[in-house]
Amino acid sequence: MSRRRILALAGSLLLLAAGSACGCSCSRDALPAAYAGADHVVVGKVTEASRSERELIWSIEVLERFKGRGDRHLLRYDYPDSPCAPALAVGDENLFFIDGQAITRCSFQPAGKDGSVGLLRDFRDGRIDVLAEPWYELYGDGECTLAHQPVRDGRGFATVGLRASTAAAADPHPAIYVSLRRNPTTTYHLGETLARPSLRLDVPPNSWTLVEDADGSRSGAGTTTFWLAGDLVTDILDALAIADEYRLTLHEFEEQTATLTVEAPIYDGAALVSRFERCRETLPPSPRPGN
Fold first, then answer.
1. Long-range contacts of the stretch 235-240 (C-beta < 8 A, 24+)
2. Stated pTM of the model
3. Out of 42, 191, 228, 274, which could bridge 224 as a Cys pair, Cβ 3.0 to 4.6 Å?
4. What phi and psi, each to the nearest 5 degrees, are found at residue 141?
5. What is the DSSP letter of 99?
6. DSSP β-bridge partners for residue 179
7. What is the pLDDT confidence band of residue 147, given thresholds at 50, 70 and 90?
């Protein structure tokens, strides 16, 4: 049995065990990592689907290619009765990250889900030199957020977001936040030392310090969130609109050394800021005190 099939088998068993207990979920790699780890990256259409006692099989017709070769791909899943089997039907069009023939729920996403296809197209055609992670939009009751995850590694991942809210008078409008979620098996522990960590945001040539969410109301289990709100956010938006990249640096006060550094390119910062401003315009007026 090949190493790839062994990994697919192990992943399927883990998903099966998790699915029986708490439902199936998927934590996809950030776009640059998913692209780098795949043999083929394509927008494809499911043209055939079959099932046997041993496996599920799908035939994918390539509609647009960003990496790899071939006009068709055959994808397989070894556990047809698993509640975590990929949900693919004939006619579905998805962005596929294909590694061999094994497929999981994390191997594809709807082609129009976020800006991934546009970024891949621009990267393929040479309009951008670095593949960035797309920013996705989140809408809620009285709030909207643009966010992305510029990095994931064995220690955890970072989520960077621009958030606007009128849901509560105490909630900043607008704000920028960074949530750092750690892998509990690793050695660094955010927010658990006696001295609080600090997070610096650099959008060259400027830098800002984000404040840790002290009461934990925004952080959640395993996550530490840093915020910055007020007039300075306008300055950050102005900087993001013309920047090519940004950098996050986490410092533990006790050591004064960087324990985590994230560098991420910015693709079309002006469009990003414009999307955020349009998102803000959809919000209802802020509640007045006493109402």
1. 235/206, 235/208, 236/176, 236/201, 236/203, 236/208, 237/162, 237/174, 237/273, 237/276, 239/203, 239/206, 240/203, 240/266, 240/269, 240/272, 240/273
2. 0.62
3. 191
4. -75, 105
5. B
6. 159, 225
7. confident
Tokens of 162: 């621009």
Alpha-carbon dihedral of residues 38, 41, 45, 47, nearest 10 degrees?
A: -50
If DSSP states are collapsed to H, E and C, what string results for 15-27?
A: HHHHHHHHCCCCC
Sign of CA dihedral 96, 32, 235, 140: positive
Let me know: does 103 contact 58? Beta carbons within 8 Å: yes
Tell me how far apart the alpha carbons of residues 60 and 164 are, in angstroms, rounded to a whole number. Answer: 40
First-last CA distance in the chain: 66
Note the pLDDT of residue 204: 85
Give residues with Cβ within 8 angstroms of 18, minimum separation 6: 24, 25, 84
Q: Residue range 69-84: average pLDDT? A: 90
Euclidean distance between CA atoms 124 and 75, whole angstroms: 24
pLDDT in tens, 14-70: 332 333 333 466 666 678 888 988 999 999 999 999 998 889 999 999 999 999 999
The DSSP H or E segment spanning 119 is helix 116-124
Give the residue among 158, 174, 182 at the shortest CA–CA distance from 249: 158
The enclosing H or E element of 271 equals: helix 269-281
Q: Is 241 helix (H, G, I), strand (E, B) or coil?
A: helix
Both structure tokens of 251: 């410092």
CB 41 within 8 A of CB 97: yes
Please list, in sequence order, all residues whose beta carbon lies within 8 angstroms of the beta carbon of residue 179, skipping any fewer than 6 positions away. 158, 159, 161, 218, 219, 223, 224, 225, 226
Contact (CB, 8 A) for 179 and 223:
yes
